[in-house]
Amino acid sequence: MAAKNNYFWTKKLDNGNTRVGLNDQGRDDLGKISFIDVPAKGASLKSGDKFISVEAEKAVTDLDSPVDGTIVAVNDKIVDDPAGLSSTDENENWIVEVK
Prior knowledge:
Elements: E1 8-12, E2 18-22, H1 24-30, E3 33-37, E4 44-45, E5 50-56, E6 60-64, E7 69-74, H2 76-80, E8 94-98
Antiparallel strand pairs: 1-2, 2-8, 3-5, 4-7, 5-6, 7-8
């Protein structure tokens, strides 16, 4: 079962899409993330349903989606190198963009 959490920030973009990333609480509670499993572009998200799986310093867990929508972009940089999630820069630590 996926964890209930408030680990994500969401930001409405000029193109109408919403970007989702890891917030300070998520970074604090999870610790350094070593692996992240993100759904593929085109996948549908439903708020409260499983979104991503992470392996981190303090937890190995599934995290729930904070939004409904279809994934239109995935931040491949953080999939390849999850250390980017430790950044406080929203241009670095975003995970997906949904429409």
